[in-house]
Amino acid sequence: MPSIKRILMVVTNHTTITDDHKTGLWLEEFAVPYYAFKSRGYEVKVTSILGGEVPLDPSSIEGEINEAWAEAEKELQNTAKLKKEDADDVDAIFLPGGHGTMFDFPDNETLLAILQQLAEQGKIIGAVCHGPAGLVNATYKDGTPLVKGKKVNAFTDEEEVEMKLDIHMPFLLESKLRERGAEFVSAPKWTEFSVRDGNLITGQNPMSSRATAEKVIEALSDKL
Length: 224
Hints:
By secondary structure, the chain is an alpha/beta fold. Helix content is about 30%, strand content about 20%.
């Protein structure tokens, strides 16, 4: 009987883009993969960069309350702070997006150490939308960028410009991934798209949350 797969989900704690523009985690990008993993019987550990309550991007919770996501939202009320030991005994890591990740993912030493460990071990690394911000400074032990020579996807520069948030970002995600040597592939703006290159799985935008999670599940199934 195969062992239960364990997924580490890491989310942002950053709350602002500008003084009058709040941000945080994009709820769909967490909730949809969370339920996809749980439906497969996986153990899911939810952590955040600082721990505690996770801020949600206001735009991701506009409109009617999605009661089906209540369990997922509860997981965000008091998260554990990410620590290096979280990489032990997990089969995959998944990084949901939200603009908050652009500020607290790229230079977080703990996240970078975990990504390096999992990459060296051949574990699955998944990220969606702005979640790949966690990959831009991640390297193997020899200093090679994790994304170098890999087919990679993320929130595109075109999508960022259309949101008029490009001027407020510390960098443009697509451009930075290209700088790191990634083979950036994408679909037309605001359409579902995800790509798998070996153990690395990335998705373009909120609409790509399910497809990205399903590719992670596929990759884990390949390792049975």
